Sequence to fold (68 residues):
Amino acid sequence: AKDRKLAERRQKDELVGRILAHYQALGQEAPIGLASSDVPALKRHLDHVKGQGARASRAAAVGAAAAI
Fold:
């Protein structure tokens, strides 16, 4: 049981770190209480943030192409 909790904690820490990195790349603040979420919620949130980053990248590319 202790090993399972430790593995879950590591997974949560990794997911929180990845989410924070995405928010930093977007120039936004991460939600308060992010670290208190469970693993499935963190995975969903990471997928959501990745989608935001992809949309922002496409919008920047279109804007740059329009400026040419």
In short: The first helix runs from residue 2 to 26. Residues 32 and 59 are 27 Å apart (CA to CA).
